[in-house]
Amino acid sequence: MNKGKVTILGAGLVGSLLSIYMSKRGYKVSIFERRPDMRKEQIVAGRSINMALSDRGWTALDGIGIGDEIRKISIPMYGRMIHSVKGELTYQQYGKENEAIYSVSRRELNCKLMELAEKQPDVEIYFNERCLDVDLESNEVVLENLKVNQKKKVYGDCIFGTDGAFSAARLKMQMNDRFDYSQTYLKHGYKELTIPANADGSWKMEKNALHIWPRGEYMLIALPNQDGSFTCTLFFPFDGERSFNSIKTEADLVSFFTEIFPDTFELMPTLIHDYFHNPTASLVLIKCEPWNYKDKLMLLGDASHAIVPFYGQGMNSGFEDCTVLNRLFDEHNGNLSTLFPEFSKVRKPDADAIAELALRNFIEMRDLVGDPVFLLRKKIEAKIFQKFPEKWMPLYSMVTFSDIPYSEALAEGIRQDGIMEKIMAIPGIEDKWDSKEIEDMILNNL
Q1: Using 50, 70 and 90 to split pLDDT, how confident is the model at 241?
Q2: What is the spatial distance between Cα 125 and Cα 38, in angstroms, rounded to a whole number?
Q3: What is the pTM of this model?
Q4: Are both 114 and 164 inside the same structural domain?
Q5: CA-to-CA distance for 66 and 69, rounded, in angstroms?
Q6: Residue 290 and residue 306: Cα distance in Å, rounded?
Q7: CA 36, CA 31: separation in Å to the nearest integer?
Q8: Is residue 417, in this structure, part of any structural domain at all?
Q9: What confidence tens digit (pLDDT) does each residue in 97-123 have?
Q10: Is 275 inside a domain boundary?
């Protein structure tokens, strides 16, 4: 039975997934996307950070039976591979045995989700449709077709804004009274680079790991692709002595890479082309409240809580929005007048928490993952987790391999930090970290 019409603005990852959830609930869904259909467009390099799917994302995908389709285009990464300046490798397992995050191309994933959405009985996607206005009282959206320059109005019983960090739907809400909004840019940006496959299609580095070159104020990461290549991302300050603005010539670039990332230079035959031709993108943090306007409009994903990518949770948190919204549909019997404000209320603290965690993890990834004291601390935590999983779960595992609310994970992580600071301050901890004495001290503080 059709329950009404739903308008979704944005056919990105969250919008495409949300459309499947709403279709399965009996709604007739129309998605309007400003961009052309990426499945029919030539690939434009340089605008993608590979996605890292973890448990929250898989829960959302499996919740509507499409997880196995996505696993076919994903590669498991069981840990971090840390590359020192000297080329030394250090491997850090992410979680328990066989726990992994999964590398997947943003484009491939988005194309697959759109394909699966269009297979639903009542989902239609319209491309080249730019949102010009949203009437929050009448539920009408004014759209302009960018191919024929024609305007039209469409109606939905409710509207979802899943149109990204610079959401047109949210812009309309910002004009309302009592709507809080903040937008913060990092001083760092990013640029996509590539390590191609070997001639036989194999990978030039360990396939099942996320590779990190931590260098303090900047870092490089690389995630594997199914074709044997790695999508690399250089995180770099916009300004300063070593920055995007300081590298002006090919000689500047070669000098920088051979000094700072020497083991990558020979692996990147297209480095010079990629660096000077791929765009430099910014990193933005978006917070707003409330996410809904009455029972008429709801923001999800980056439109309501864009975060920086350093915990690999941007997409996963957006997908979890769909999971939580779906659960609340059952709890509220589909009553949008109570469901929408409740979703906005319960989801906001978790979005704020993962935003904070992502910023913290930037410091960990670029500064600490190669630090001996940090590595020893992680070794101690892993031991306690292995022996007493009901009493101690590392913060990374809470965020990545569980559905513990982000806000609860952050609070528990802060508590664990306090305990571990005391432990790491013990004289001679390097020699007795594995002792019963240290184990008992940790357990007594829990």
Answers
A1: very high
A2: 12
A3: 0.94
A4: yes
A5: 5
A6: 15
A7: 13
A8: yes
A9: 889 999 999 999 999 999 999 999 899
A10: no
